[in-house]
Amino acid sequence: MGSAIAARLQHEGWSVLAAGRADGDVSKVDEARALVERAVAELGGLDLLANAAGEGFAPKPAEELTEADWDAAFGATAKGSFFVTQAAAPHLQASRGCVVMIEDVAAYQPWPSFAAHCAAKAAQAMLTRVLARAFAPEVRVCGIAPGSVAVEPGQEERRAAETLVGRIGSPDEVAAAVVYLADASFVTGTTLVVDGGRLLQTIAPLTP
């Protein structure tokens, strides 16, 4: 999904630094800040930050979760999103820029086999709202909650049936939502759900 977002932004004329695991562990504050400074140096400033890093998305019964599982889920997703945004805030304030949190419908649905992931994504979704208030009016902070996108091979039919539109989504559809929010100057502190209507289908699914 991160690759699709980077490619779409470049197609739209943005200069992009697409950072992956090899570029730093954003769950570590010093590395999160260093990544932002590198981006500012290479790009000449910041207009948009997309927080798409995440770890710990693996099914596991709640009674078997370990502290390491919990730390992995919260590290990049919640802690990383916060400290990368904190470091980027002065640069985004200068450009009156935008932050987009790549959340997940898991933030809004209880998935027992993904307890830590759901909790981490819920924390990230709250950061969308908290940071929108903290950095207003210069910086807008928005979220995107994908669902039934880029599913495991062989699960396409099952995942399509979970949506209202009868199909799975694509990473490029999430990327298109990022482009929209980057230019939506009257939108902040809210989340755009890109899930084909999945959230309306089932209130509390047992599996994602």
Quaternary class: single chain
Annotated CATH architecture = 3-Layer(aba) Sandwich
The coarse silhouette is globular
- Kindly report how far apart the N and C termini lie: 18 Å
Secondary structure: helix percent: 40-55%
- CA radius of gyration is 17 Å
CATH superfamily: NAD(P)-binding Rossmann-like Domain
Elements, N to C (H/E): HHEHEHEHHEH
Poorly predicted runs: 204-208
Taken together, the total number of domains comes to 1
Q: Which band does the percent of strand residues land in?
A: 5-15%
CATH class: Alpha Beta
Please count the helical segments.
Answer: 7
Strand order across the biggest sheet? 1-2-3-4
Main sheet makeup: 4 strands, parallel
Count of individual beta strands? 4
CATH topology: Rossmann fold
Give an account of the 3D structure.
With 208 residues, this protein is an alpha/beta fold. Helices cover 47% and strands 10% of the residues. The chain has one domain (2-201): NAD(P)-binding Rossmann-like Domain (Rossmann fold, 3-Layer(aba) Sandwich). A 4-stranded parallel beta sheet has the order 1-2-3-4, sandwiched between helices. Helix 4 links the parallel strand 2 (98-102) and strand 3 (140-146). Helix 1 packs across helix 6 and helix 2 (29-43) runs parallel beside helix 3 (67-95). The longest helix is centred in the middle third of the chain and has 29 residues, at 67-95. The radius of gyration is 17 Å and the shape is globular. The model is unreliable at 204-208 (pLDDT under 50).
